[in-house]
Amino acid sequence: MREKERKIPRTIHAAAHSSRHRVRQKERRVLAEVAGILEPVGLQEEAELQARVLEEFVKNSRKKDKLLCSQLQVVNFLQNFLAQEDTAQSPDTLVSEDTSRQKASEVKEQWKELKATYQRHVEAIKCGLTQVIPQVEEAQRKYTELQEAYEHLQAKKQEVVKKQEASQKKWELHQKNLQCLAEITAKVKELKARTQQKLDQSNQELENLKQQAEQEQDKLRRNKTYLQLLCTLQKKPLVSEAKAEDMGNALLPESL
């Protein structure tokens, strides 16, 4: 019987160690599934979602680890209790075989409850991942749409920039043409002013010449009249206008 009681703590310890090993393996598989789901995304929005999913998973894992740790502490306590009982009891006060079996059965039931609880937690994590996967896919689809819209806007922006650059070049050319036109206009105005000044001078000279011509014609008429009068007084025939003009010019200084 003592040999059986010694085997019970060893069995519990081995079962606890095996359970912890299986728990770690399942955690690794779940983390690998999460990493496999979120790895193709590789973008900022999906990275944030991945961080939130991992954070929630870590929180749930910590809760389960705490529960598992508390249950393992119970198992450890029972293991230590049985070990102490095995070393402290004398042959006369040994626990009966039925009592040992009852304790072993209780420990086995606790272990089953612990395993069932862990299994429920694993199922809850898988269920949570099943709900998260469509959200990740939807986020990836929205990101693809946003990326396409962003690329479309970038192309539009490039077109607008090119049009703006072309408009800027046209505006600069227009300003240059306006400047050249202003310079030409200024030169034309200056030339027009000079031409107008020369024209005014020419008009003034022409007016002076007209006045001189009128004076000469008036003088010629007076000479002609004087010559006719002179011929009449002297009873001489009239001469031609050319001769009269020559004679008038010759006689005019004497008469004056």
TrEMBL record:
Residues in coiled coil: 136-230
Q: Where is the signal peptide?
A: none
- Pfam families per the UniProt record, alphabetical: Zwint
Q: Which UniProt keywords apply?
A: Coiled coil
Q: Name one GO cellular component term.
A: kinetochore
Which stretches does the entry tag as region Disordered? 1-25
Q: What protein name does the entry list?
A: Zwint protein
Give the organism, scientific name.
Phodopus roborovskii (Roborovski's desert hamster)
What does the organism's lineage look like at the top?
Eukaryota, Metazoa, Chordata, Craniata, Vertebrata
What is the name of the gene encoding this protein? Answer: Zwint
